[in-house]
Design goal:
Helices cover about 40% and strands about 20% of the residues. The strands form 3 sheets. It has a 3-stranded antiparallel beta sheet, with helices on both faces. A 3-stranded antiparallel beta sheet has the order 6-3-7. Strands 4-5 form a two-stranded parallel sheet. It is of the alpha+beta class.
């Protein structure tokens, strides 16, 4: 996981692991928080080959694997967080999880969605109150062309960069700012380098819990069903 212990969705996965261990006695979840296994791109790749069994990642980089998932990566597609949760919990959410699981190239099973709140811009230069204020600012975006295009369309200079590189880039001025949800801004201490957090909520993108298809295909059907059930409880 790219986030540290105590981050809301890290806690959710840990609790899911405890339930899994209690109910099977055979499986447990060993967490590697705080980017111990690299950034999200590296974690996805490790899960695809079966070096890692389970990964909790943003839907952002997943759009490059199954294009349909990019519908959740579009700016201002949800009215608010409650709207996003309702869609993820409903038929559309399940349809997209199934598309990821069925895509041969993905090599992943989509287990569940997780709430990641709303993302807003923050930077070291000034508050952002209008589109004019974004002009000329170098803003780190997740490594998916749709996000860079979003930043550029709003007038900023979007720069694709891994989350694992962001703190140093803010510190050294390689970027002027970034966009993230409040827990990421707080836990990564980005406020030390970018004190202006402006509530734009331009992206409300969920996180997704994915499982390695290599491992999944070797598991008994009952165990697969239990994993899906516990994942849905974690989503709730």
């Amino acid at each position: 996981d790219v986030h540290a212990l105590g981050y809301p969705t890290v806690e959710a996965v840990e609790r899911m692991g405890k339930k899994l261990e209690a109910q099977t006695g055979r499986y447990s979840v060993q967490m590697y928080p705080a980017m111990q296994l690299g950034g999200e791109k590296e974690m996805i790749e490790q899960t695809q080959v079966g070096a890692v069994q389970i990964a909790r990642v943003s839907i952002g980089p997943m759009g490059g694997i199954v294009d349909d998932l990019n519908v959740f990566n579009m700016p201002f597609v949800f009215r608010d967080v409650a709207h996003a949760q309702k869609v993820c919990d409903g038929e559309i959410g399940q349809e997209l999880l199934d598309k990821l699981s069925a895509a041969p190239a993905s090599r992943l099973i989509g287990l569940c969605w997780m709430d990641s709140g709303a993302r807003s811009f923050y930077n070291s230069k000034k508050p952002i109150r209008t589109l004019e204020d974004l002009k000329g600012l170098k803003i780190r975006m997740m490594g998916n062309p749709i996000f860079v295009d979003t930043a550029n369309a709003l007038g900023a200079n979007g720069i694709a960069m891994g989350f694992d590189q962001l703190t140093a880039a803010l510190q050294t001025g390689v970027v002027d700012g970034a966009e993230n949800n409040p827990p990421s801004y707080e836990t990564q201490k980005h406020y030390q380098f970018a004190k202006y957090y402006s509530i734009s909520e331009h992206l409300i993108i969920p996180e997704i819990l994915v499982f390695s298809k290599v491992t999944w295909d070797k598991m008994p059907k009952d165990d697969q069903a239990l994993l899906k059930k516990l994942a849905k409880e974690a989503q709730a």
